[in-house]
Amino acid sequence: MLSDKQDKLFIITAPSGAGKTSLIKNILSYAETNGCKVHLTLSHTTRTPREGEIDGVDYCFIDENTFKENIDNEIYVEYAMVHGNLYGTPKDSIDSFLEDDFIVIMEIDWQGALNILKAYPKAESVFISPPSIEDLRQRLLDRGLDSEDVINQRVSGAEKEILQKTKFKHEIINFSLDTATKKLINIIFRENHG
């Protein structure tokens, strides 16, 4: 275990629609502009790609049998069933980049995040909260990606997820993408200047 480099691992979680994907895109853009070595881990999932998602960029989309073989082969540092689909994080996508002095960012659900924190107890953890449940519902509606049933399921799940925020070292309430981005940049890059 890379105990001396675990503080370069940033675990970022949020309810669906709270803006974590947009925040992480902004962080990656900031890192590229400023010449920072940052790696975003790529999760495996059994769900079908959403419109615009690219295999090998957004996720590694695999079938359930392959996913289960990977579990048997202990490929994943964590995996979970989320909204009826399997998601998992390959261990080598964390360790090899930490070893090469990258800042490693994980975008992951809260259950997976808590499992990662067991394996990497010195990692940093950030919970992104929506300003309110009503705001979250509106964002999900505005996205236009999911049916009303799926949105209701996600909002119900979000209410439970938000209760977990106290288990994370940092919380950012995403009132504004610009402000939330600045806060996240400060957490990630301030922590790693030393």
From TrEMBL:
Keyword line: ATP-binding, Cytoplasm, Kinase, Nucleotide-binding, Transferase
Highest taxon above the source species: Bacteria
CDD domains: GMPK
Main location class: cytoplasm
PROSITE patterns the record matches: GUANYLATE_KINASE_1 (PS00856), GUANYLATE_KINASE_2 (PS50052)
A GO MF label: ATP binding
Organism: SAR86 cluster bacterium
Catalytic activity: GMP + ATP = GDP + ADP
Binding residue positions for ATP: A14, P15, S16, G17, A18, G19, K20, T21
PANTHER family: GUANYLATE KINASE, GUANYLATE KINASE-RELATED
HAMAP family reported for this sequence: Guanylate_kinase
Any single Pfam family the record assigns to this protein: Guanylate_kin
Role of this protein: Essential for recycling GMP and indirectly, cGMP.
Listed name of the protein: Guanylate kinase
Locations listed in the record: Cytoplasm
Family membership noted in the UniProt record: Belongs to the guanylate kinase family.
GO CC terms: cytosol
SMART domains: GuKc
InterPro entries xrefs: GK/Ca_channel_bsu (IPR008145), Guanylate_kin-like_dom (IPR008144), Guanylate_kinase (IPR017665), Guanylate_kinase_CS (IPR020590), P-loop_NTPase (IPR027417)
